[in-house]
Amino acid sequence: MSIVTLGIGEFGMVSQPGDVIKTHALGSCVAIVILDPGTRSVGMVHIALPESKVHPERAGKLPGYFADTGIPALLQFMQKSGSATNLRKVVVKLTGGANVMDKNNTFNIGKRNILAIKKGLWAQRMGAVAEDVGGSISRTVTVNIDDGKVQVSSPGLEINSI
Fold first, then answer.
1. How far apart are the C-alpha atoms of 98 and 137, rounded to whole Å?
2. Rounded CA separation 73/98 (Å)
3. Active-site residues: which are they?
4. Residue ranges of domains in the chain
5. Which residues pair with 44 in a beta bridge?
6. What dihedral angle (degrees, nearest 10) is formed by the CA atoms of 65, 103, 116, 150?
């Protein structure tokens, strides 16, 4: 059993019984969770910004940081590991994209992240079957491979499964 904890811009995958993958403090950031029922594996990426053109050098070093480079990077990583080979059979879930620090909606990073991610998923002919996005709360996402439930927790609130 291993616990994989992802930071901002990181992506990873778990595939052994008892494995857990998680990421913390999703404010405007969005976690994309890809579950492959055929291989019983789970991939996740912690997206911070919608477009890599704002910082191409960072995108080259940390492709998961951006929606437009993070989705292909996660899919390629999962496929090299023998998972997500049939994108029509994977299950995608999204969490995050809140407006936590921009009360005047000046930048709308959370909303822009969600839209860029959906656009990126659509380009792959994929879409989310469940999401816990928007609002004004920070979220932590945990997925236990044994049950495949995506658990979302926020300070002071009950754990929600999507």
1. 6
2. 23
3. 29
4. 3-161
5. 12, 33
6. 70
Cα separation of 33 and 30, whole Å? 10
Q: Which of 11, 12, 8, 77 has its CA nearest to residue 49?
A: 8
* 3-161 is classed CATH 3.30.1330.200: yes
CA-nearest of 113, 110, 95 to 33 is: 95
Contact 148, 43 (CB under 8 A): no
Question: Is the pLDDT confidence value at 102 over 80?
Answer: no
Residue 131 has φ and ψ, to the nearest 5°, of -155, 150
Q: Is 0.90 topped by the overall pTM?
A: yes
Question: In whole angstroms, what is the distance from residue 61 CA to residue 29 CA?
Answer: 18
pLDDT band at 66 (very low <50, low <70, confident <90, very high): very high
